[in-house]
Amino acid sequence: MISNTFKEAFYFFRKNILHLLGYTFLLGIMLIVLVQLLLPLVFSGHDAEELTIETIKPFMQLMNLLIKPIYTGGLILLIYSLATEQGKNILNCLLGGLLRWPYMLLANVLTSIVIVTGLMVFILPGIWIFSRLFLVPYLVILNSQTPFTAIMNSYHYTKGYSFKILSDIVLLIVLLMIVFILLNVLQILTPFVVLFSILLFQTLMYVLFYRHYDILVNTKTPSSLTSTSIE
Fold first, then answer.
1. Is residue 63 domain-resident?
2. What does the alpha-carbon distance between residue 73 and residue 100 come to, in Å, rounded to a whole number?
3. pTM of the full structure
4. 3-state SS string for 105-147
């Protein structure tokens, strides 16, 4: 059964899909250009023929670690701007993500360590921990909280809420799998189509998380926190 939260998030996503995907693809293009500029510098002692996926994999992982906080922060600001009709453009949101980069980087590292530790102990604890900490980037970006404060507050706000967020995530994963199956049946499951589909669903996921953030802020937090509903 599709929850009202999921329906609201999907409606918002569909209504603002051009703005959201415009941001996603702009960041993607900028990242590709940046990688192309840095590769010759990082691997200056290697011939082009020597560069393989395994060779550049550590470099790409480092780039993802450094760039993802900016991307996530900017996307959260864009979603918030669209939800509150503030009219911020993509570059302003990206700048906001850049300014909060140190906090988002630390928050990503801390939450990743906790979640991965839970997964190593047993899969279910890791999944449960994720359901308790998914608010962290939203609290860091939208409420200017420190990573440690955001982690503690996220754990507090999501008490008794794990099933709701996990059920929506499962639904999102099922929909993605159905899309891949259909694309495979239609024989159009090309690398570009796969990448586009993943970006599409990833963006929807951030919208969905924002909707849950909004609900939790409205119902569980004091007036010192600000939020608005996605309508």
1. yes
2. 7
3. 0.86
4. HHHHHHHHHHHHHHHHHCHHHHHHHHHHHCCHHHHHHHCCCCH
For residue 182, give its domain range: 4-220
pLDDT tens-place string over residues 43-96: 666 655 555 666 667 777 788 888 889 999 999 999 999 998 887 888 899 999
The type of residue at 40 is P
Residue 120 lies in a domain: yes
Residue 141 forms part of a structural domain = yes
Rounded to whole angstroms, how far apart are CA atoms 95 and 184?
38
CA dihedral 23, 25, 27, 32 (to 10 degrees): -170
Contact 73, 145 (CB under 8 A): no
Of 87 and 102, more confident:
102
Is residue 111 in a domain? yes
- Residue 170: CB atoms within 10 Å: 10
Which long-range contacts (C-beta less than 8 Å, at least 24 apart) are formed by 116-119?
none
Domain count, the chain: 1
